[in-house]
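Q: Here's a chain of 449 amino acids. Please give me its 3D structure as tokens.
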Amino acid sequence: MRYRAIKMDQKQFVKSLHKAELHHHLAGSIRNSTLLELVQASSKDCSGLPESEIHDTTLFLYRQSLAHRSLADCFKIFGMIHKYVHNSQQINRIVREMLEDASRDGVRYLEMRSTPRSLSDHVCASGQKTTNIIRVPPSCRVNGMILSETDFTDVHIQEHIDSALSHYVEVVVAALCSHAKTEPGLVARLILSVNRTEDISKAEAVMAVALAWKQVHIESRVFDSKTNVVRIMYSPVVVGIEVSGDPTRGDLCPLLNALTSHLGAADKRLLPVSVHAGEVMNVAETQMVLRWQPDRLGHMCVLSHVSIDQMLRQRIPLEVCPTSNTLTLHLTNLSDHPLLGALLQQHYPIAICTDDAGVFDVTLSQEILQLQATYALTNEVVGEITLEAFSMAFCGWNEDNEGREIMLLLKEEARRALHSSLGTPQTDVIGEFLTDINRKMPSNSLIAK
């Protein structure tokens, strides 16, 4: 039996969906208004930046239309973010505002990613650049024990790690913990990024910090529909590693080898890994990435026949960022995407994401609406794609049984919300609608010319 979706405005339908956002950069999620404030404030905080530079930057942000940002404009803004965001208070604000924006858009699970760096207000104890202590925010759980509800707790770890990078993670985790208590509707976790263009030692330092903070579990309040109660549950705050950076620079081979050395091989990794790949045509590198078997892929837009065939065989989940891909590939329209239409035809596991929501001025709902309009997808298909993103999350990895249960509960709530919007019974009838997609997909070429 087939069930028809009730008639409702597409924007309202997509907004009503419970969504999982899996590719969301912290720095790129800054609000335009916040960046403006930070730029203007820098003229008063003795930053040493020329007044003329601050004036020109302010004018650029005021005058430049958010809706018509070019790729060059976006790169200019990324440079501004790195220059004007430099202390703990600013990072805390950006995290808080990012979570508020995501929650308002109906996001129920979010994996934010960020590259740890030294903040201007970090002070090394006794001048030491490494530490075997992490300062854990209130109400976290470590080794099965819930720590102080009011104070930070010093937790000793076995290995020495970079103190500046650990301090950065501490600031982000504190903001996540605070949000979990005040706005419990969104479960947020952290992926640490390593840059392919930087020295391997920096990447190894980030991996060490990630493994140290992996033992810190933060609180989540999740509704259990079977018992009709909100459950307080804990799972690791750091859930993965991301490999990113300028795709035209750097050799990925040593970095992937270092990841294997520190985290283990595929299926046995201490932390799952997402790799940006296929952003430019580089057949050898893309093949190497696929052979290495990351746990998720990012972008994968420009591929050879060989890479496409291998990707379709492996079916590694893919993070698709429509607005970002349209800009970076200089496409006139998303329908010109060289791979996306064919992936939809193949029912390939994809998660729709925003990449840099603030810089691109886009929400996850808008990305999903763009996908639906471009490929004439039914509400049922859109709902299933959105729902399956919860199954691709890094939360619940490996032995993290409680994290796995959190994701099952979130997905169940998402399924109930989807059926409510579709007007269908609370049973799994969505799969049959996926066959509709074959009749609706344009015959886009998979091969980069």
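Q: Can you summarize the key feature?
A: DSSP finds 16 helices and 14 strands in the chain.
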